């Protein structure tokens, strides 16, 4: 499971339960393509489903972004990540 929540005042939160995925360091979103991907510390990436136009419109450089990894009902890891908006 990977969920993405965008809140124009609170920022972007990526929540997932994939411990095997490794450490997420950035979220990259294509403004025109609406494609999103997570960039991992080891250089791999994980492509997400295309975002809605409304979600992309709410994104802007400098918006806070964080990743939360859950294990069952508990938070296993939470930290800030970089948000990159690309064309």
Please characterize this protein's 3D structure:
The longest helix has 6 residues, at about 55-60. With about 90 residues, the protein is mostly beta strands. A hairpin with a 2-residue loop joins strand 6 and strand 7. It has one helix at about 55-60; strands spanning about 1-5, 10-15, 25-30, 35-40, 45, 65-70, 75-80, 80-85. It is built from 1 helix and 8 strands; from the N terminus they run βββββαβββ. The strands form 2 sheets. The chain has a 4-stranded mixed beta sheet with strand order 1-2-6-7, with no helix packed on it. Strands 5-4-3-8 form a 4-stranded mixed beta sheet, with no helix packed on it. About 5% of the residues lie in helices and about 55% in strands. The protein has one domain (about 1-85).
**Head-to-tail CA distance between termini:** 27 Å
Give the fraction of residues assigned to helices.
under 10%
Provide the domain count.
1
**How much of the polypeptide forms β-strand, as a percent range?**
over 45%
Oligomer: single chain
Question: How many β-strand stretches?
Answer: 8
Shape: globular
Q: What is the tally of helical segments?
A: 1
- Order of strands in the sheet with the most strands? 1-2-6-7
Structural class: mainly beta
Order of helices and strands: EEEEEHEEE
Radius of gyration: 12 Å
Largest sheet entry:
4 strands, mixed
Low-confidence sequence ranges: none
Q: Provide mean pLDDT, rounded.
A: 92
